[in-house]
Every structure is written in structure tokens, then in C-alpha cells.
Design a protein that fits this description.
Elements lengths: L15 H4 L16 E7 L5 E7 L1 H4 L4 E6 H6 L30 E2 L5 E7 L2 H8 L3 E6 L6 H4 L15 E8 L1 H10 L2 E9 L11 E7 L4 E5 L5 H12 L7 E4 L15 H13 L3 E4 L2 H7 L6 E9 L5 E13 L6 H12 L8 E10 L13 H19 L3 H8 L8 E2 L5 E2 L4 H11 L5 H10 L3 E10 L8 E7 L5 E5 L8 H13 L6 E4 L17 H28 L7 E3 L2 E3 L6 E3 H8 L15 E5 L8 E10 L6 E11 L6 H20 L30 E5 L17 H20 L12 H10 L17
Parallel strand pairs: 1-12, 10-11, 14-15, 20-21, 27-28
Antiparallel strand pairs: 1-5, 2-4, 2-6, 3-5, 7-15, 8-13, 9-10, 9-12, 13-14, 16-17, 18-26, 19-20, 19-25, 22-23, 23-24, 26-27
Helix pairs in contact: 10-11, 11-19, 15-16, 16-17, 18-19
Length: 789
């Protein structure tokens, strides 16, 4: 019997009912009795020495309760935000760059918090903040990664000579150089992975409370998982037992990696709550988000591909200057190195790889994980090289890819980066996307565009990601007295639809009605073992833990049903939510059994009086979602405007739990990739001032920038977890960035431009390229006028 709310069913997200009607509960919607309000004074200098902070006038302002500086935090013994490596990947630590909650001794980027004012009301705190006087001796700032490593550049940290926090290498350099020497053709590219920022609907906010009776904190904050907040705040900043810090997260209006870790503001507000003995609330503005939240990407890449005479790929090498900002964030450096290297060389059979990544410090906001988190960089490097090689050699871009794809018969396959692909059908993916995108019909569409004075181009990208797995995840399944089931997970939904997809999985595995399943996340005082929702891991890890916990429920239930029904345990089978003896009318439903168990007395010692169960899952390695995307663009030669006019994606994310939700994941990721490719760029001037500090300056994609997407799946279930999923959260952005760039450069090549351009592909860049080659002005077809009715 098909469960219409089970696995593979396009169940509408049940959380949307409250979210789209204004009934969501975001952090800023909450208030605590007696709370005070905090406002931060931020550095207006990109780099400088703090000579003095005069707080006298601010302290005497109406309603002010405290003015706190970095020196106050140092004297109170408050620690710093550390770099924290993830498990399963070994590398030397980068230069130590401890990030304080409030700047100490010097400021290292515009927007860095310098002082915090706490007052009875928000207007009082804001007014008093303007009275804080900070004396800073400016120092030269460096904001560009290439200039940062140039001779004579200003030093961001004295313990990082030449502003390099770490240089990391992978691969057999001698073998790779030999392969390049023997190559019949070498393609080289210089690429820029432009600095961008996540833009969730909900800016960061926090409310901190302190209980002096037992020395415990409570922090309300939008997070991607309470456990990682615990690790940073308890183990490193306040150095206290984790049971003395309660983290609560309600609805989260988007995260994309930006809410993975606690920030300086969370720490300062916690300290203020302890100092004052009353709750303190801070609500970040969009401007503060641009100034001080972790940014992303920011890399300059020199890459090369070696090919033999037949077009077979022999080796890839890449030298990457990876900007990390003024501080090495908790995971930014590690993720950039790990995910970029692991992702190379995608779904191609390339025997040799050489990667060198230098982590470069600049006077800019720190870099952190953002959707893709290095995976998009691996795809961008490889797919731009492959496309350029096809153009240089005169190869058909599909044929060149096809002859280098890892054949299905070779899977499981160990890549040059050491990753084992356990499942996949890469040629099947390619065939499917070409059919769905009507690849062979492009010529007719290009001619139609030309008749309208536009240049049409198409781009293909084929990619593999390395996601999930680190390090473990647990789930509790609890049977409630009212006949419902609660699933408690340490992951945290920030828009992924956990309340729906997790419930579908439970409904499928246990045969429980979908509407009887409730998902609980976000309260650290009641969470199983786990980490967070990061790296496309939620369904891989928490979903697998649900499967393990479900199996434990069934095993417990079989023993208990044997006792209740007075039959042999070996005679019982479980199906559609009931235990039964085949060929008889003897049966009992799982929910009924759970209710009956509550009233049972004198149970044998080997029987549990509850079906409540815990499941824990540790993955044997990273998972590998993959896909093929096709993008078509039109360029207006007169203005340089690029329009994405068609987009087709076929992805293998393993078992698809809810197609409706996964479609949404792909749509959102593609939109973010198009945004980075065409519009988005965080820009600083040479003095470290942020130029793109608002949505008036920073170009986000709107609906008008996006076409209707065509999305399909070509699943090959993963063998690395019990439900066969691979992770879907980042396939859209990973596939779209190279697909869009390949399409734009294809269109430019058709217009006579021989030099490839990079991100963001602004109209000005396009216009200048076309003017340099003397591209004719667009000739518009006259509009057809309809006769009057």
C-alpha cells in the first residue's frame, strides 16, 4: 500500500501554513520580561590602533545601564571565537587570529564591534551609542587578496607574514608537472570567485538571560544547530559546562551557512546579561549584516588542464589565493580547503591532481561557509577549464565531456582527490539533461534571438559534490500520552522543510499517520547527540538516524507485541504500522501498542514499558550528489545586459524523500548561483570602506532575473546510509555558477570575443568586450502591430 505521505511523495510543507500567514516565531518576534536593549558602535576604519574609548558621556545618557568595551571583556576573562577544524580531514592549523566580541587593541575591518551600549529602550541605547568617542590611529588597510600577498603590503596579523595564514598542498606535484610537460594541449585560466554574502530574510538577533542562582545562561538566537553554538560558547569563550548554557532557536528566516556559528554580538550580549543580572536583546539591522556577518568566496585562481592528443584529461592543477578576511572564522578556512580539493575533478576520469591553496588575510569581514562552501569553486574551476579547452581545440563541448566521464562500470570509483564515489550514472545524467534542454534545437533558438538583435549562448556544467557525513547525528523517537509521536533532532531547519520531510520518513518507516508525527528541534536542553544543519547533511545524517531509531522502535515493539498478544516473537511481522501474525486476525497497531504499554505492570525484565528509542548514525564517508545543468542566455549588444532565458537541471541526489521540497532546493540554489554569476559582489575600497553595504548597492537576483526552471532527477541511491540519500541543498548553486559563465562566454565567442570573462558578469563588462571587437549594434525586429478589434 502506497503511503501518500511517505517517501517520494510531493507532500506540501506543513510549516508553510504559519510561515506565510505571519504566524512564524522568529527570534526578533520574541521578548523577555525585563529585557534591556543593546546597540553596537562599530569601527569606521578598515585598520587601526585603538588609542582610547571614552564612554563617559554615554554612561550618563538617559536610560543607559552599561557601556562595555573590549578591555572590559578581557578583564572579565571572556574568550575569543576560535578556528575549529572539522573531523575527517587533517591539515595544519592556520595562523592564530582570535576574534574578540569587541575589538581589543586594534580594529581590523570596517564594521567590527568596538563598544556596546545597553539601555532600557532601543532608542536610548542608539542615542547613547553616538556619544561614545573612539580614538583610532589609522593603519594602511589591504582588501584585495592579490595585493595582500604583494611585497610591501600592510600586515593584518603580525604572526602571518605576507598575510598568508596557511599554505596547503595536495597531490603529486612532480607527477602532475610531468603530465603537463607531456601534454598535447594545455588550457590555462585565471578565475575570480567573487566575494559575496548570504542574504537571509531574517538578520541576526539574540536575547541573552543569566541566572545568578546557578550561574547559567539562556541564549535565544537563530542558529543552524545548538550543538555547535555550545561548542564555541561553552568550550572556548566562557569555558563553562555545557549544561550551564541553554540555546534556543525558533523559526529561522534563512541561513545558508551564515548562522552556523555564534558571532561577537552573541558573546557581548551574554556578558552584558551576566553583568546586569537581567535579559539583554540585540536586533541586527541589514546594514550590520553587511558589515559584520561572515562573507563568502573571495578567491583568485590560476588553473590549468592537461589533455592528450585525443582530448583525454591527464591532469588538473590549481593555485588558489583564498581570502579569509580579518579573522579565520570557525570553519571558513577548513571548509574552503577541504571542499574545493575534495570536489576536484568532478565526474571526470582525471588521474592526477595538484592543488595549492593559500589562506590570505585582508582587512575585510571574515569569510565563512555559504551555500556551496568550496564545492562551487571546484565545479567552477573544472567546468570553466573543460569548456575553454573545447573551444581552444575545436571540440564539441558535449563530446569532450562524454569521453572523459567516469563510466558507470567503474563505480565505485576513487577520484584523484581521494574520494570514493559509491554510486552514479554520469553518462545517463548527461543524456537526460541534453534531451530535457533540447540541446539539438539550440540553433533555431539562436537564430530567433539574432532576429531580435540579441546574441544567444548556451552553457553546460557537470559536477560532483562532496557533502555531509561529519561526524555523527542522533535522533530520539518518543511516543506521547496523547497518541502522537515526537521526533527530536539536533539539526535545525532554516527553511529546508524538516517538519515535513522528517515526518514523511517516520510515517514511511513506522506506518504512523503523517499528522501524528511532530518534529522538535532548537532546544539544547532536550537534544540528542548531533551537530547542525550544514553541508547538505540534514537528511543524510538525521534522516539516517531516524531510520536507525525506527528500526529500534520496531524491534522493541516486536518483543512487546509478542508479550501483549501472547504469541511467539518469531511469528510476528510488521507492516503498515501494525504487528500481525500472517494468516490470522491477530494484530496490534504500533500506536495502540505504545498506549497499552503505559498501563502494563509486572513486565518481564527484558521488556521495555515504552517504545521510545534513540538512533545514532555515523557515516562511513562523504556523500556525492551530482548533476548536469544547461543554461541559455541572451546578450543585448547595445547595453551588455545578460538575460538567463532557459535553465535545465538534472540532479542525482539519491533517494528523493519529497520531490516538491527538493525542487525548491534546486530552484533556490540556482537562483543564488545566477545571482553570484551576474550580479553579486561585495566590494571594498582601498581604505577598507565597504562600498556595497546595503541592498541598494548589492545586487540580489529578483524574479525578473530568473527564467522558469526545468528540474528533474536521475537518482542512484547512495550505499553509504540506510535511506540512500545524497544531499540536495547545494546542487543548484554548484551547478549553476559554471553553467551560467559557460553560457555567457559561449555567447561572447559567437559575437567574436576571444577572451573569456569572469564573475560577476555585469553589463558594463559585456558592453566593453563587445565594443573592443567592434560588435555591431543590435538590430531589433519591428514589433508586430495588431489590427484594431
Amino acid at each position: 500500500m502506497t503511503n501518500k505521505f511517505g517517501i517520494s511523495q510531493p507532500v506540501r510543507r506543513r510549516e508553510d501554513g504559519r510561515l506565510v500567514t505571519g504566524l512564524g516565531s522568529f527570534t526578533d518576534d520574541n521578548n523577555v520580561p525585563g529585557q534591556a536593549h543593546a546597540v553596537f558602535l562599530r569601527s569606521s576604519h578598515g585598520h587601526g590602533l585603538i588609542r582610547a574609548v571614552d564612554i563617559g558621556a554615554a554612561l550618563n545618557a538617559p536610560g543607559v545601564l552599561a557601556v562595555i568595551t573590549g578591555e572590559d571583556l578581557r578583564e572579565a576573562g571572556v574568550g575569543y571565537i576560535p578556528y575549529l577544524p572539522l573531523g575527517g580531514f587533517t591539515m595544519d592549523p592556520p595562523a592564530d587570529t582570535p576574534r574578540p566580541a569587541l575589538a581589543q587593541d586594534r580594529v581590523r575591518h570596517v564594521g567590527e564591534p568596538v563598544a556596546m551600549v545597553v539601555a532600557e529602550t532601543l532608542p536610548q541605547a542608539a542615542d547613547a551609542c553616538e556619544k561614545v568617542l573612539v580614538e583610532i590611529d589609522p593603519l594602511p588597510a589591504v582588501t584585495d587578496v592579490e595585493r595582500a600577498v604583494a611585497e610591501g603590503a600592510s600586515t593584518v596579523w603580525p604572526n602571518a607574514p605576507n598575510n598568508v595564514a596557511l599554505t596547503w598542498r595536495y597531490g603529486d606535484r612532480a607527477a602532475v608537472e610531468s603530465a603537463f610537460t607531456r601534454a598535447a594541449h594545455v588550457t590555462k585560466l585565471k578565475l575570480v570567485n567573487n566575494r559575496v554574502i548570504a542574504n537571509p530574510i531574517e538578520p541576526r538577533c539574540c536575547i541573552a538571560s543569566y541566572n545568578p542562582a546557578d550561574g547559567s545562561f539562556t541564549l535565544l538566537a537563530p542558529s543552524q544547530g545548538a550543538h555547535f553554538f555550545h561548542r564555541v560558547l561553552c568550550d572556548h569563550v566562557f569555558r563553562m559546562p555545557r549544561d550551564k548554557m541553554k540555546i534556543r532557536t525558533f523559526d529561522v528566516g534563512g541561513a545558508f551557512g551564515s548562522k552556523e556559528q555564534p558571532y561577537p554580538e552573541d558573546i557581548a550580549v551574554l556578558h552584558a546579561a551576566r553583568l546586569l543580572g537581567r535579559p539583554v536583546k540585540w536586533s541586527g539591522t541589514r546594514t550590520e549584516h553587511f558589515l559584520s556577518d561572515n562573507h563568502a568566496r573571495d578567491a583568485v585562481i590560476e588553473a590549468a588542464l592537461a589533455l592528450d592528443a585525443s582530448g583525454k584529461f591527464r591532469a588538473i592543477k590549481a593555485t588558489i589565493l583564498d581570502g579569509i578576511g580579518a579573522y579565520c572564522s570557525c570553519h571558513g578556512a577548513h571548509i574552503s580547503i577541504r571542499n574545493t580539493t575534495n570536489g576536484l575533478p568532478l565526474m571526470y576520469d582525471v588521474p592526477l591532481l595538484d592543488v595549492e591553496i593559500s589562506l590570505v588575510l585582508t582587512n575585510t569581514a571574515p569569510i565563512g561557509p555559504y551555500r556551496g562552501a568550496g564545492r562551487e569553486q571546484a565545479a567552477y574551476i573544472t567546468e570553466r577549464l573543460v569548456e575553454q579547452a573545447a573551444r581552444e581545440l575545436g571540440f564539441d563541448p558535449v563530446d569532450l565531456r562524454r569521453q572523459n566521464l567516469i563510466p558507470t562500470k567503474s563505480i565505485p570509483y576513487k577520484s584523484a582527490s581521494g574520494q570514493t564515489y559509491d554510486s552514479g550514472d554520469f553518462e545517463g545524467l548527461l543524456d537526460k539533461v541534453l534531451t530535457l534542454a533540447d540541446w539539438i534545437g539550440f540553433g533555431n533558438r539562436a537564430r530567433a534571438s539574432a532576429e531580435n538583435g540579441l546574441v544567444r549562448g548556451r552553457g553546460l556544467s557537470c559536477f560532483v559534490e562532496c557533502v555531509g557525513a561529519y561526524p555523527y547525528e542522533g535522533v530520539d523517537i518518543r511516543f506521547e500520552p496523547n497518541g502522537t509521536v515526537t521526533v527530536v533532532a539536533a539539526t535545525q531547519s532554516s527553511g529546508q522543510g524538516h517538519e515535513t520531510s522528517f515526518a514523511q520518513l517516520v510515517s514511511e518507516r513506522l506506518g504512523i499517520p503523517f499528522d501524528k508525527v511532530r518534529i522538535k528541534e532548537g532546544d539544547s536542553s532536550d537534544l540528542p547527540k548531533g551537530l547542525a544543519s550544514v553541508g547538505s547533511r540534514s537528511m543524510i545524517m538525521a534522516g539516517s538516524a531516524i531510520a536507525v531509531a525506527s528500526d529500534a522502535v520496531i524491534e522493541k515493539g516486536r518483543s512487546l507485541a509478542s508479550h501483549v498478544l501472547e504469541v511467539s516473537k518469531a511469528d510476528l511481522e510488521f507492516r503498515d504500522g501494525s504487528f500481525y501474525v500472517p494468516g490470522t486476525d491477530i494484530s496490534i497497531g504500533l500506536l495502540e501498542l505504545a498506549m497499552r504499554a503505559r498501563s502494563l505492570r509486572d513486565l518481564p525484565p527484558d521488556l521495555s514499558a515504552t517504545l521510545d528509542s534513540t538512533g545514532e548514525f555515523t557515516a562511513p564517508g562523504l556523500h556525492h550528489p551530482n548533476g548536469c545543468h544547461v543554461c541559455e542566455v541572451e546578450i543585448d549588444p547595445e547595453t551588455g545586459k545578460v538575460s538567463v532565458v532557459a535553465y535545465c537541471a538534472v540532479d542525482d541526489v539519491g533517494t528523493v524523500i519529497n520531490p516538491l521540497i527538493v525542487h525548491g532546493q534546486v530552484h533556490g540554489g540556482v537562483a543564488q548561483g545566477i545571482g553570484q554569476a551576474l550580479l553579486e559582489r561585495i566590494a571594498y575600497d582601498d581604505d577598507g570602506q565597504l562600498i556595497t553595504g546595503s541592498l541598494m548597492d548589492y545586487g540580489l537576483p529578483r524574479a525578473a532575473n530568473l527564467p522558469a526552471f526545468t528540474v528533474d532527477f536521475h537518482p542512484t541511491p547512495s550505499t553509504k546510509n540506510p535511506i540512500g540519500v545524497k544531499g540536495s541543498g547545494e546542487v543548484g548553486v554548484t551547478g549553476s555558477i559554471p553553467a551560467v559563465l559557460n553560457a555567457v562566454n559561449d555567447a561572447l565567442a559567437r559575437a567574436g570575443v576571444s577572451t573569456a570573462i569572469g564573475m560577476p558578469v555585469t553589463p558594463e563588462k559585456i558592453w566593453r568586450c563587445l565594443r573592443e571587437v567592434g560588435a555591431p549594434k543590435a538590430r531589433r525586429r519591428a514589433p508586430t502591430l495588431s489590427a484594431p478589434a
